[in-house]
Design brief:
This protein is of the alpha+beta class. The chain has 3 helices and 17 strands. It folds into 2 domains: about 50 residues; about 140 residues, Methylamine Dehydrogenase, Chain H (7 Propeller), CATH 2.130.10.10. A 4-stranded antiparallel beta sheet has the order 4-5-6-7, with no helix packed on it. Strands 8-9-10-11 form a 4-stranded antiparallel beta sheet. The termini are far apart.
Length: about 210
């Protein structure tokens, strides 16, 4: 019986252990094999620990902490990680340290919110519009319903906001309102239901 040692894989290989005159095979050393298993397990455990450390802890905030009511209808986030919430008391802003509340002009419930670039769009009872920061860093609201003279249905509320190319789409339960950011062109579609799908990488809109 002859054997050779391969230092690169950490075990002894028996290269000529003869069972019969016509059959030969290689048999790894049990100790080296066990070391291989240990190394793989160690790498797996290290990966799991690192992965767990990458996920921040979940934080819970009660209404007293953010100074508003307890119902939030929609959430959106900007590229700088600031969070925005559509709340019964208005638009909520959270930058990771501080909460700010911005009521809409009629103090109605905000049903939807969508952050696009440095602008925040909201939909509420009988209104939808955009929030932009003034020179003091405070958000100020402009009603797009008033700006483009949309005639709304009775008691209409806006539950969804989508960006599709240059178009902003505001969805109520019975209508779809479109505003083109570049040309200021507007469109209005009446729908039979509020079923709305945004498909194909953000380039196709289906509604009924």
């Amino acid at each position: 019986m002859r054997h050779s040692i391969n230092p690169t894989d950490g075990f002894v290989a028996l290269t000529a252990f003869t069972i019969s005159s016509n059959f030969k095979f290689s048999l790894p050393c049990a100790f080296g094999f066990a070391m291989k298993i240990f190394q793989h397990v160690l790498v797996l455990l290290t990966t799991l620990v690192i992965s767990a450390q990458e996920h921040p802890p979940v934080m819970a905030y009660n209404p007293d902490a953010y100074g508003a009511q307890n119902q939030n209808w929609s959430i959106s986030q900007t590229s700088d990680q600031t969070m925005y919430f559509a709340n019964n008391s208005g638009l909520l802003e959270y930058d990771g340290m501080n909460w700010n509340r911005y009521p809409v002009p009629d103090n109605s419930i905000v049903r939807s919110v969508k952050a696009i670039g440095d602008q925040i769009y909201t939909g509420s009872y009988m209104d939808f519009g955009v929030w932009k920061r003034n020179n003091k860093g405070i958000l100020e609201y402009t009603s797009l319903v008033e700006q483009f003279n949309f005639e709304l249905a009775e008691d209409e509320q806006f539950w969804g906001i989508i960006k599709l190319d240059d178009w902003l789409i505001f969805q109520s339960l019975s209508r779809i309102y479109l505003v083109n950011e570049l040309t200021n062109e507007t469109n209005l579609y009446k729908v039979r239901s509020y079923h709305l799908q945004h498909l194909c990488g953000g380039r196709r809109l289906i509604f009924q």
